[in-house]
Amino acid sequence: MIYNNEKIVSVGKGSPLTLSWELVTHCQFKCSYCYFNPYESSTNYSEVMKIVLTKIKNIKEPVEMTLLGGEPTLHPEFHHLIKSLYEMNHVTKIDVITNFQPTVEFWRPLLPYKDKIEIVLSYHVEYSQKNFFKKIEALKNDFNMNIIFLVHNELKYLSKLKEAADKYFELGLETLPITFAKLVDRSSGSAEYFEYQAETLSFLSEQEKRVKRLKYPEVIPVTTEAGTKIEINQMEFSSKNMNRFKGWKCQMNALIIHPDGMVSYPCTNQKKHILFAELGKRNLVCAHEICPCEAYWNFTKTKNS
Hints:
By secondary structure, the protein is an alpha/beta fold. It has helices at residues 45-57, 78-86, 104-107, 132-139, 158-170, 198-212, 234-239; strands spanning 2-3, 6-11, 17-22, 63-68, 91-98, 117-124, 144-151, 178-182, 184-185, 192-193, 219-224, 229-233, 249-252, 254-257, 262-264, 271-273, 282-285, 301-302. The chain has one domain (2-302): TIM Barrel, CATH 3.20.20. A hairpin with a 4-residue loop joins strand 11 (219-224) and strand 12 (229-233). Residues 23-186 form the Radical SAM core domain.
């Protein structure tokens, strides 16, 4: 991996334990590219919540939570769950990955917990989301927010993506980080980007330039063989295919908690019920051609010599 003619030998800077909790299986949307394929379930989400919260409460190190789904805001006890996590001192951050369908009033009860919350807004171009930006304007001074534009690979959606991107930049939301992300195809059992045509790649390139001019772009820290430390814009990192770490040593400090209480260890096929799962860091050698999870790029990865 080369950047500015220097060989990169490590990526990331380490991270606290990250728990990605899939709160529910269902969603208001059914996007064609969704790897989760949301569905209704007979799972008693409230009972699973009690078990998971008890397990998290007993963790002895700092924890960053990511709440997702399905659509996490559809959990029957969403506000209570947020309050419970907030009151745990070792839970330092709570990210909510949402399609932002709930009304502004839905979010107001979370204001007492806002110092730990970041709302990560996913823009899905297959659906109208006509009030998406109005709600951002209404809440931008109340919550930390982060926007992910999922860039569809089908050309029929390109004009709508351009319109939405222009709307974002017209609002002057420089303090709200934004990422334009390519879609990941997991249909084969592994992860790879969908194929993109030249027009969409050109759109992505233009947005990359615009994002670089923002006040707080998302960046990935890297170190070169010469000891040079560089921060690379996250979109550039992806567009230059730098998220390929096969054979690298990785300090994976993340777990996925599923709606039924099972726990997956990312990058492996290992799965256990949360009652028996060990929640902590693991050292592994990356076996995948691509790392599609931006959240995992900051876990320390070292190239084998």
